[in-house]
Amino acid sequence: MSGTFYITTPIYYVNARPHLGHAYTTIVADVAARFHFMTGQETFLLTGTDEHGDKVVRAAKAENLSPRVYVDKISALFKALWPQLNIRYGAFIRTTDPAHILVVEQILKKIHAAGDIYFSEYEGLYCFGCERFYTERELVNGRCPDHETEPEVIRESNYFFKMSRYQDWLIDHITRNPDFIRPERYRNEVLSFLKEPLEDLCISRPKTRLEWGITLPFDPNYVTYVWFDALLNYVSALGYPDGDRYRKFWPKAQHIVAKDILKPHGIYWPIMLKAAGIPLYQHLNVHGYWNVDQSKMSKSLGNVVEPLELKNVYGLDAFRFFLMREMAFGLDAGFNEVSLINRINSDLANDLGNLFSRVLAMAHKYFDGVVPAMDPAVEKEFTLELEQDAAGTIAAYAGDMESFAFHKALATVWEFINRLNKYIDVTAPWELAKKKSSLKQLEAVIYNLLEGLRIISGLIYPIMPDTAETMHRHLGMEPDPDAFKLERLKKWKTIAAGQKLPKSVTLFPRIDPEKRQLAAQTDSDPAPIVVKPEISIEDFRKVDLRVATVIHAERLPRARKLLKIEIDLGEKRTIIAGIAESYAPEELAGKQIIIVANLKPAKIMGVLSNGMLIAASEKGKTAVATLDGKIAPGTPLN
Ligand code: MSP
Questions:
Q1: pLDDT of residue 130 exceeding 60
Q2: Running DSSP on this structure, what letter comes out for residue 194?
Q3: What is the pLDDT of residues 16-56, one digit of tens each?
Q4: Does ligand 1 come within 6 angstroms of the Cβ of 50?
Q5: How far apart, in whole angstroms, are the C-alpha atoms of residue 526 and residue 360?
Q6: Quick check: 159 and 222 in contact, CB under 8 A?
Q7: Pocket of ligand 1, candidates 7, 25, 284, 306: which has the most ligand atoms within 8 Å of its Cβ, to mutate?
């Protein structure tokens, strides 16, 4: 097969550090790209970060950073992680990249000019905590599921994208192209959603509510809704509309997402493409969730597993293999350390590892580590079925890899591994070695086993690239990724007789199941400290830190997290602080606290906050910095 292959991951929100869920999707993309490379295609993998919108603004606020500094910090964590997991991306896009912003503006203008965007007043249920509208269906007992507050009815003018106009067209497209969205359960889900009338999509946010976004090119008072901005990364990263990469790769685009973001990818995105006159992607590949104890692994539930910790404890290839083998693509899977250890011990150490060391040990013992030649006289008798089995394995594997059924592809490879283990038992090389007269047979058996291992090393390459290369080296082959291409793999009798094989190694050590090593699967690992860029003492002195005494504090209606605090700073002031979940208002009166006295005042929930108190937050708990001596209010600290 020749041609191109373009694969994308979702661009991840920078409101959380990368965890196993993100790693899974990105490893799937890498596995798919490596497999398509094996088929002879030119591949391109895109990943990146989604950096606009109020989720990100809130996360930045929680860390007391500006959105700009905050997005740089978290995006860098994602970018640095992927190479450590052996993921080779062609580009890493950020939605704050100027080139991306230009494309968003361009496409918005195009759709606006075509008449698919209109301005209208909207009345809806709005949660101020989330800064978004809710539909009745999304509420739990009439309340916001996050803030448990009753949303308010507000009227607001916004821009809307006429999605409804494309509903019938989309149904038709999905019906005619059965594998446009796959596996089938997700295609059915989208089709059943499309049975209800599709609402137009609100694609703007007034700047009075949210400034961190891409300004609408036709109205400076609004920013673009984060999904409309984010989805366009898939074309902007290729240099839409006339970049070489765009021309080369877009016609072969495939996306990978988990089911949480099926709707934007299965509905908004194809309609946006159609409205913008861009050809549609080929496939949307949708997977399920990694759960821990039946709940989705996520930052908010605090049950995340760190990919690097897994790599450090169990080895990268074992980790990649486990993810790909354990989850049936499309369905949910449970993560737990015991099943990881079991898989490593049975599939990797026992089946694959033993086969590899048995065969190499025999090659060293009987032939001094030199690849024996096969005598044509015995070749047929000792090879025929193996060669056919290998061809059958490669064909079944390729079909499953192509359609994202990775667990099946690996199961097929393991059948072949077992087949080779049985071949050893049946041919009993140790018996053949006893008699000089069976030397030719022994040579044929060992040669065939080495060839079988060569095929296995190629088939595991997309999932375990390092192990594949180690195996290859020990089979006396030159390091050459092209050797894993399917055309080359298929050719039986590729290993040259007479090659000297290096000493064998243990591919996967057995792990004692009693010795689980991962930290409890909670979010307890401290994040690495990323210190902000250095400043001078002069810079520091610009911050006017003062002692203040709390006079009175009260809750703000509609805001679960906020307190309105009257302080004495030598003069009376009001500040708003997000500490209501950690402090009762009564607790604060009389406390001496530290205030940034010269911070630009900001209106928060309609109240002017004039200064900011110093506090530390960790996992939703906040501690306010207080002074223990009686210092006159207004006294400077620096
Ligand atoms: N920013 C949007 C995507 C925009 S794409 C144009 C977003 N970001 S996210 O950070 O929330 O990432 C969601 C994706 O992360 C999921 O679709 C999936 O790929 C991955 N996963 C996050 N948690 C996961 C699990 N627990 N299990 C499996 N995948 C998970 O949505």
A1: yes
A2: T
A3: 889 999 999 999 999 999 999 999 999 999 999 999 998 89
A4: yes
A5: 44
A6: yes
A7: 25
Q: Give the number of C-alpha atoms closer than 13 A to the C-alpha of residue 299, restricted to the C-beta side.
A: 13
Whole-model pTM: value is 0.81
259 classed as catalytic: no
Indicate whether residue 239 lines ligand 1 (CB < 6 A): no
Query: Is position 296 annotated as part of the catalytic site?
Result: yes
Q: How far apart are CA 541 and CA 277, in angstroms?
A: 55
Among 73, 79, 296, 485, the active-site one is 296
Task: Tell me the C-alpha distance between 553 and 561, whole Å.
Answer: 13
pLDDT tens digit string along 71-127? 999 999 999 999 999 999 999 999 999 999 999 999 999 999 999 999 999 888 988
Strand, coil or helix: what is 152? strand
- Binding site membership of 24 for ligand 1 (Cβ less than 6 Å): yes
Is the CB of residue 563 less than 8 Å from the CB of residue 580?
A: yes
Q: Is residue 202 among the annotated active site residues?
A: no
The phi and psi torsions of 186 (rounded to 5 degrees) equal: -80, -30
Assess whether the C-beta atom of 85 lies below 6 angstroms from ligand 1: no
Mean pLDDT is lowest, of 188-202, 293-307, 561-575, for 293-307
- Ligand 1 center from residue 288 Cα (angstroms): 11
In the chain, the amino acid numbered 589 is: A
